[in-house]
Amino acid sequence: MTKISMLQNEIQKETETSLLGFWIYMMTDCIVFASLFAVFIVLRNNTAGGKAGSDLFSLSFILTETIILLTSSFTSGLALLAAQRSHLKQTVIWLCTTGLLGTSFLILELHEFTKLDHSGNSWRGSAFLSSYFTLVGTHGLHITIGLLWLFATLGYLYKKGLNEVSVRRITMFSIFWHFLDIVWIFIFSVVYLLGVI
Amino acid sequence: MNTSMYQSKAFKAYLCGFFLSLLLTLFAWFIVWRHVSSGHVVYSHLFIRISIVACAVIQMLIQFVFFLHLGREKKPRWNLHVLLAAIGVIIILVLGSIWIMDNLNYNMMNITPSQADSAF
Amino acid sequence: MIISLFSSTSVPSTDRLVLFFGQAMVVGAALLIALALVYFKKVGWLWKNWLTSLDHKKIGIMYLVVAGVMLLRGLADTVLLRFQQATSVGASQGIISSNHYQQIFTAHGTMMIFFVAMGLVFGIINLILPLQIGSRDVAFPLLNNLSFWMYAAGAILINLSLVFGGEFAATGWLAYPPLSELQFSPGVGVDYWIWSIQIAGIGTLLSGINFITTILTKRAPGMSMMKMPVFVWSVLAAMTLVAAAFPILTVTLVLLTLDRTIGTHFFTTAGGGNAMMYVNLIWAWGHPEVYILILPAFGIYSEIVATFSRKRLFGYTSMVYAILAITGLSFVVWLHHFFTMGAGANVNAFFGIMTMVIAIPTGLKVFNWLFTMYRGRINFASPMIWFIGFVITFSIGGAAGVMLGVPPIDFQLHNTLFLVAHFHTMIIGGALFGYFAGIAYWFPKVFGFKLDEKLGKIAAYLWIAGLICAFTPLYILGLMGATRRLDHYDASLGWQGLFIVAGVGVVIILAGVAVQFMMFYLAIKNRKKNLDTTGDPWNGRTLEWSTTSPAPVYNFAIIPTVSDRDEFFRRKQLGGILPRRKYAAIVMPNNSSFGFFMAGWALMFAFSVIWHYPPTMIVALLGVIGTFIVRTFDDTTTHIIPAAEIEAIENKRAGALV
Predict the structure, then answer these.
(1) Mind telling me how many Å the CA of B20 is from chain A's nearest CA?
(2) Which sequence spans correspond to the domains of chain C?
(3) Residue A51 contacts B, CB cutoff 8 Å
(4) Fold topology of A76-197
(5) Which ipTM value was assigned to this complex?
(6) I need a labelling partner for C283 at 20 to 30 A (CA). Which of A130, C338, C415, C571 fits?
C-alpha cells in the first residue's frame, strides 16, 4: 500500500467513528436543553408580579422565525445531499442559503431580546424572564456557533474542495443544524404556544 | 451523476419531511391563534395542550426519519440506541423534575391559593 | 506576610498562619517543579514526550500523577478537619475559625471527588481500556489529550484560589443557594468553585463521549459485546452515566453563574427564584456521579477476583445485567439526597423504594465475586487484600445506605455524621480501594517493573484498619445526633472521645499513605531488579497481558482476533508460541499542543470571569475559536511507522502468543 492510500484508508475508517462520536455529543447537547426546559417549566409562573408570556409574545412574529429556521434545516439537508454527490457548486449554494436564513433568524431573535430589554422585561426581571432568556438564548448561542462553523466550512471548501473530510464535516454540521431545529420545535411549542394560551 | 440530485429518493425524503413539518407547525400555530383571538373560549385548555404537544412530538419524529434518516442505518444501529437512551433520560429528568418541584411547591406553600387548587 | 494578591475579603488573624502555609505550599511546589525542569534541561523532553502526547498510556499516567498530588492536598484538609473536631470542645475553639473550617471542608469534598476520584477513574481507564479491547488507542486521541488538560486546568484553578484571593467557597462541596448566591457569598470563593469544576466537567464529558465510541467501535474483531471483559462493561456503563449526567451539571453551574454575574433570578430569594430547583438539578447529576465513581471499581474487582482466584468470573451474564440495572436505576433515585426538603409522601416513597431496589444488583455482584473465590486457588496478593477490605467496609456502608433510603429514618439521620460515615466508607472502601487495587494489579503492565508486594500489603492493611477506625465513631456519633460540618461542640455531649478515635484512624491512614510512598520509591529505585519480562506477571486472563510490559506505542502489532471471553487465558491453555509473521505499517497520530492551548484559554476565560475583567474574557474566547479553526485546517496530523520498524520492535520479545 502506498503512503497516500494508507492515509486515505485511515481517513475513511475514521468517518464512521467520528459520526458516532458526534451523534453522542449531540445527545449530551439535547440533555443540556432538557435541563433548561425543566428549569423553564418549573419557573414559568414565577413572574414576581411582572409580565407573563401571554403579555410579551407575538404569535405572528414567532411563526415567521419558526418557518425561517425550518426552511434552513431543509436547505442544510440539501447541502449535504449535494456534497455526497460531489457537486461543489450546489453544496456552496445550499450552505450559503442555510447561512442567510440562519442569520435572519438570529437577527429577528436579537431584535426580540432587545425589545424586551428596553421595555423593562430583561432577564433581571423575574425567574420566568431569566429562564426564558437563558433557554432561548442558549439556542441562539448554538445557532451563532453553527453559523461560525458554516463560515469556516465554506473557507475549508474554498481551500480544499470536496474530499472525505469536508463531506464528513458537512454531515456533522447538518446533524447539528437539524437538531437545533428540533429543539426549536419544542421552544416554539412549550415556550411560545403554551405560553400565550 | 447521471440523475440530478433533485430526482433522487433522498431529495424526495427531504422535501416530504419539510412539507409535513410545515403543516404541523401551521396546524399547531393556527389552533392557538384561533383560541387566543376568540378570547380563550373556543377550545378547552386540555385539548389545546395535548394538540400542541402532540404536534411537536410528531414533527420531531418526522424530522428524525426524513432529515436525520433514523432507523435506516446498517446494524448495529448505535445511533438509534443512543437516541432512545437519551430520550429516556430526558423524560425522567423533565417529568421527574416537574413532579418533584410541583410537590415541593405545594408542601412548602410556595404557591398562590389558586395554584394550590390545581396541584396534584 | 500574606501573598494574597487581589484579595477580596479580609482574613481573620486566627487563620492567617494556616492560609500562609497553604499558599507557601502551592507556590513553593510550583516553583520547585519549574526550577527543577529548567535546571535538568527537561522542559523540551517533558513537552515532547508527555504534555503533547496523544498516547492513551501516557495520558493515563499524567492523570494518575495529578490525582496523586490532589490526594495529598485533600489529605492535608482531612488532617485539619479531624484535628479541629477533636480539639474544638467546650472552651477551646480549636485552631481555625468557623468560616475557614467551612472553606476547608468544601475544598476537601470538591478536591477528593472531582480531582482525586475522577482522576483515578480516568487515569486507569485510559491506561487499560484500549489494551483490554485489543485496540491501538481510543476513538479520539486528540480529544483524549484535551480532556486531560481540561482536568489539569480545573486542578490548577482550584489551587490558584489559595494564592489569588486566599478564599474558597464556604458552602459545602455542592454550594447550595441561597448561601452560594452573591447576597451571601460576595467574594470570589464560590466563583473559583464553579469554574474549577465546570472546566474539569467539560473534560469529563468529552472523555465520556470518547470512551463510549471507543468501546462501541474499536473492539478487536470477534469481540462481541458479551465477550468483553467485565471491566469494559463497567466503563461503558459509567461513561453512559457521564454523558447523561454531566450536561445537567454544566447547565446548573451556568445558571448559578448567571445569577452571580448578570442578575438573573434562578435560585435567588428575590424575583421568584427557587433554590430547591438547584438542589433538585445538582442531585440529578450528583447521584449518577457517585455511580460513575464506583462502577469502574466494580469492574476492576471483577478482573482481580477472577485472576487471583485462578478461576473464571462466576456469572458473567448476571454481572453484565447487574451493571446495566445499576446504570438504569441510578437515574431514578436522586431525590433520596433531599428527602427532608419537604416533598410529600408519594414522592418520598417512590424514591425510597427505588433506592432500596438499587442495592439488589449491587449485592448480586458481591455474591458473584465471593462465588468466584469459592473453590478457587486463591493468591492473596495485595490487590486481593484491597478487595477483602472493600467487601467488609463497602457492605457496612451499603447497609447504612439502605437504612438512609428509608425516608422516616433519613429524617433522623440526614446530614448527620452517620451520612458522612456512609459515603466515606462507600467512596474510600468501594471506589478508592478499587483504584488502589487496580494500580497494584496493572502497575507492572504500565511501567515494566513490579511494585514491592510486602509494602503493598502493609499499606492495604493500614488503610483498611484506618478507614474502620476513622469512621466507625462517626456512625455512632451520627446515631447520637451529631450534625455534619460542625466546627465546635459542647463538652457535656461527651463526643470528644469518639472524635479522638476518628483522628487516630486518620493517622493510621496517613501511615498507610507513607508506606505507599515508600512502596513507589523503592520500586522505582530497584526497578532493574524487578523487571516484568513476560508481560504477564499475574497469569492474567485478558488481552492487556498479551503485550510486553510496557506495551509498545501501537499496543498490538497485529490486532488479535477474539473468539471467547478471557481470550488471552484461552490461548495460553492451547499452548505454544505463534510463528513469525508478516507485519504491516501502522498509522499513528502526531503529538499536538491543541489540548494544552484550549485548556489554557479556558483557564484564562474562567479567571477573567472570576475577577470580572472582560478584556481577557474576549481574548480567551477568540483564542478558543482561533485554535480550533487552525486545527481543522491542519492536514498533517498523522505519521506512519514502517513495517520494518515494527518487526524490529516485535522481534525483541521472547515470543508472542498473540
Answers:
(1) 11
(2) 378-531
(3) no
(4) Four Helix Bundle (Hemerythrin (Met), subunit A) (1.20.120)
(5) 0.96
(6) A130
